[in-house]
Amino acid sequence: MRQADGWIRGSLGAMALVGMALALAGCDGTRQTVSGLSSCGGEAMQGWIGQPAGPLASQLPGVRVLDSGSPTTYDFRPERLNAHVNSDGVVTGLSCG
Asked: How far apart are CA 44 and CA 20, in angstroms?
């Protein structure tokens, strides 16, 4: 029975590592979302990618500025423009919702 327990623990550990690797595979911090922006008017805002988010937020009061560490709500509003920023406050992507 001990050998079976060790095999199970080893298998669970391997599955956990695979799961973490898959979860982190898309988390490189450089999200660049530019498709599907018609519902929030984001198509015209693509020039903001690579620019500081401060002026964008002051010019467009309804924009939601999101960084990877900030908590966000999951209420989907297709007319709302989301600006995704990196740790330097630079816009890395846009999305609607």
From this structure: 36
Name residue 66's beta-bridge partners: 84
Q: How far apart are CA 38 and CA 91, in angstroms?
A: 18
- Residue length, the chain? 97
Residue 52 has a CB neighbour count (10 Å cut-off) of 13
93-to-8, 72, 90 alpha-carbon distances in Å: 42, 16, 9
Cα angle, residue 55 at apex, residues 49 and 59 outer, rounded to 5° = 105
Query: So what's the pLDDT on residue 5?
Result: 53
Neighbours of 28 (CB within 10 A): 7
60: its two tokens: 């467009």
pLDDT tens, residue by residue, 24-81: 444 444 444 445 788 998 888 999 999 999 898 888 888 999 998 888 888 888 999 9
